[in-house]
Amino acid sequence: MAEIFNIKKGDIISITGAGGKTSLMFFLANHLKKKGTVLIATTTKIFKPNIKENNSFIFIYPEEILNISPQDNFIHIFCPKIEHNKILSASFEDLNLLKCYFDYVLIEADGSANKPLKGWRDDEPSIPPITTKTIAVVDITALNKEKNENSIHRLEIFQKQYFNSNKIIQKIDYINYINHNRFFKTTQSEKILFFNKIESFQLFKDFFNIVNKVEFFNNIYFGSVFNSSFIKFKNVTPIVLAAGFSKRFSGDKLEFKITKQKSILEVTLKNISNISFKEKILVGKNCFHSNLSHSYNFKFIFNDKPEIGQSYSVVLGTLNASFNGYLFIPGDMPFLKANTILKIIYKFQYNNNIIAPFVNGEKRAPILFPNTYFNELVTLKGDNGGKDILKKNSFIKYRFKNSNEFFDIDTRDDLHKLKILEEQI
User: Fold this and answer.
1) Cβ contacts of residue 388 below 8 Å, gap of 6+?
2) Whole-prediction pTM value?
3) Tell me, what CATH number does 53's domain have?
4) Residues in contact with 1: Cβ distance below 8 Å, sequence separation at least 6, in sequence order
5) Which of 235, 387, 402, 419 could form a disulfide with 323 if both were Cys (CB 3.0 to 4.6 A apart)?
6) Taking Cα atoms as reference points, which of 60, 183, 27 lies closest to residue 120?
7) Do 379 and 350 reside in the same domain of the chain?
């Protein structure tokens, strides 16, 4: 666990936000105690843990600060004062003295009354200046729930800070909540954003469509303290390849009109646009491609040498992408659903490898490449695209049942099946 958050000996970690701060703090403490001496403290209030339930706790009181002998494999908890079974705030001065005795210091620096969202007081969070890392916890399980005192700590303040007239908590509420950046407002330490309680594909979909709208984008994790899952988020750029000549089709198949008089390419772009990507790229060769890319907010990359093969489009797309993965999507896949695209990206989060869909034992597009294959991708030649890389490297086969989604149009004969499938759009 220390490796995931890149926690090193000497780190002083403050935890802010809502929806799992205390759980995360004790989880990290249990792992870090195997690597060195650990201290837990708070600059707000936390419940005093029951020593009968965990005999690895050692409580430290103010009069003991100058005579501490930390023990390995124990969690030391600083208790400056206890009221109603709650440990009260430690002063910055005491924490400055205590840090010298311990390899790791974990501080709960924010309070939320066990609710997923909160309104912030002016004096929050209370992050000590000695902090080296601040982890902000975000719990999105309140999404689509009613805005009330059960889901939001200090509801009235929250409404003033992130006003939205809707009575239901929406994605825009989370986006505003994160973008206001109150988690880190009093610190210059390294900043980490952790989305907790992401325990299913459905919750990952919600997370993905929120995280790509937030401004903080350097150091994001998602997962679940309960499931001991902490995943460094790897963002993906969809790269639509539209610069081919459609030789077997006898004409530009991407301009062929299908449902509601939209072209094959437009429907493909529209389906991809149902996902909130941070960036989207279309590699094309004419004004039709350029105009469509702007209509759907894709970055348009002009392929001035389409005659040398598909690999050149892959090269151009890769060179212009910014993130951790490249998802190459042919422009003639109008039945590919957003859900399927997100499943491929979800698989990628847990496996930093090439992800290739398989249907009935056959490899299909789109294929996702990690950016570790950047050099191989930008040196491709010919008309095979990334197929040459797949031949030389291992990859993960992601099996799908619905072959219709992966249907692409190569010849005029495919139009008969296309008519049958149009009803699904």
Assistant:
1) 380, 382
2) 0.92
3) 3.40.50
4) 7, 27, 28, 31, 32, 228, 230
5) 235
6) 183
7) yes
